[in-house]
Amino acid sequence: MRTVTASPMPRQIATFAVVGVVNTGMYYGLYLLFLMRLPYLLAHVLAFLLSMVGSFFLNARFTYRTRPTWRKFLLFPLTNAANFVITTAGVYVIVDVLRAGSRFAPLLASAAAIPVTFVVSRWIMTPNTPHAPHAPNPPHAPNPPHAPNPPHTPHAPASHARRAPAEADALREPRSGPGQPARSRQH
Length: 187
Description:
It contains 7 helices and no strands. By secondary structure, it is mainly α.
């Protein structure tokens, strides 16, 4: 019987969304604060960079439950590269082309970049985790139907040919118990 392990993907997506809301609030608060003294594009860039650092630590701790490392921290800006380009272009278009104002421009511009940011951040934050939709078979599970059968050994009955290697070895090599002489294998 095949054991199916629940995928962490739905939990990660939900947590990523919550972290995104918190991070967007942090970004927007910083943007408004910087906007009081700086031009809108500079306010956007500074708020974006600071919120990106916060996003890294929040996602490491809550979304992916992984230890933050320098390698991940240095790669994490890749998760926001597309986000940065899309939101910066969007802010420019909304403010200078559409003349819609600078207060809500970043909120409107950021929505399209969210899926790309999730995919790239998951790839960076969990590099050794398979990102397939189904969890792999656990080590004690039987071989999947498409895998070839292991070679039949003369020491094990045919019914044990598909068992896990450690279990099959235990069946092939009887162990002597306390007070019993060691048994030799018959060839």
